[in-house]
Specification:
With 120 residues, the chain is mostly helical. It is built from 4 helices and 2 strands, in the order ββαααα.
């Protein structure tokens, strides 16, 4: 639609009509999806997936330097934010319980408590 010169406000092609611009799932307001307009699909998809892992530490470092942290502290903070915890795990998209070591310990305790029967 955008390549044809029309704004994606509404499409009559889905069901009896579907709002496009207001739907957050489509991500039309997210700048990384704009690469699909002028790049081949496979290149735009790689940028869409990899850019947050590069941009999050970069902007975290810049923010920490802006609030007057030392370069070493800003570097550690950026690396921990960008690649630690949920964003650093392979399964973060599919399973929220395997985000960190402490989280897996919590889920193991919860699952062992779930197996106990509570009688009233």
């Amino acid at each position: 639609m955008i390549r044809a010169g029309t704004l994606p406000l509404w499409t009559p092609s889905i069901l009896s009509g579907y709002p496009l611009l207001s739907m957050a799932q489509l991500g039309l307001g997210y700048p990384l999806t704009w690469g699909y307009l002028f790049l081949p699909g496979h290149v735009a998809e790689q940028i869409y997936v990899l850019a947050p892992f590069l941009l999050a530490p970069l902007f975290t470092y810049l923010y920490l330097r802006e609030i007057r942290r030392t370069p070493l502290a800003a570097l550690f903070g950026a690396l921990i934010f960008g690649y630690g915890g949920m964003s650093g795990t392979v399964c973060s998209r599919a399973c929220h319980r395997c985000g960190s070591l402490s989280d897996s310990g919590v889920s193991a305790r919860c699952s062992s408590q779930r197996s106990q029967h509570i009688e009233l």
